Amino acid sequence: MHLTDLTWPDVAALDKNTPIIFPIAALEQHGRHMPVFTDSMLAGEIMRRVEAQMRDNILVAPMQWLGNSHHHLDFPGTLSAEPRLYIDLLNGLLENFIAHGFRRLLFFNGHGGNDIPGKQAVFETRQKHRDRKDLLLLSITYWHLDVKPWETLPALQQREMGHACEWETSMVLSLRPDLVKDHATTPEVPFGNPFLPASRGWIMPDRSAPGHVGIPAAATAEKGEHLFQCYTAAAVRFIERVIDWDGTNWEG
Predict the structure, then answer these.
(1) Domain contains 251
(2) Total domains, the chain
(3) Please, are residues 149 and 227 in contact by the beta-carbon 8 Å criterion?
(4) What residue numbers bound the domain in which 126 lies?
(5) What pLDDT, in 10s, does the model give residues 58-82?
(6) Residue 238 lies in a domain
(7) Closest Cα to residue 187, out of 204, 211, 206, 171?
(8) Which CATH number do you get for residue 167?
């Protein structure tokens, strides 16, 4: 179900254990060859496919396309919410549906810069409701789901998500090839080692002058469709765990 299609009595009548899914992403630069709406397009397509399979069992809110993208602000076209403001926005979305009586709330994220804010928001909101054993507040970034797409498609050269990379470029090629420009001649920008295992503060010009990281030239529409299938199946499996949760247990 899509929240935008329902009346308020429709929402009120839903089982309060129905998982409420908030897709979150971004509008930011994706190199010289990819559209600024890439993250929202890709997360939105995965969620469209998930909703089509699970329509009677989940409620999907509209895509929150504004994200935490300050690390891309050196590149024109990027829009970004201030980090604290963004966390407060996410907290507010959770609080809205807690007030409506729902218990299982999930951020489905399609932008790396939202990963920490999403985790922080579910952490903060849980602290505000310390007496509630029945709340399940979650944040998941889709490429962190339990899937290794190269195992079923060895032609994939990358082994992790980059930025406007082989994976993202392939997915946009499968959706809107008209929006991808000259990816076949775009040079690789290596991932490098940013002082792992530490978490390093960075902005995109630290890593990449053109604004991408990975191997765009290796992208194909066929790879993109495979990635969509892998991540859709993994998202369905994860949401099934949310549905099957017993309502109090730590395990899920």
Answers:
(1) no
(2) 1
(3) yes
(4) 3-244
(5) 999 999 999 999 999 999 999 999 9
(6) yes
(7) 211
(8) 3.40.50.10310
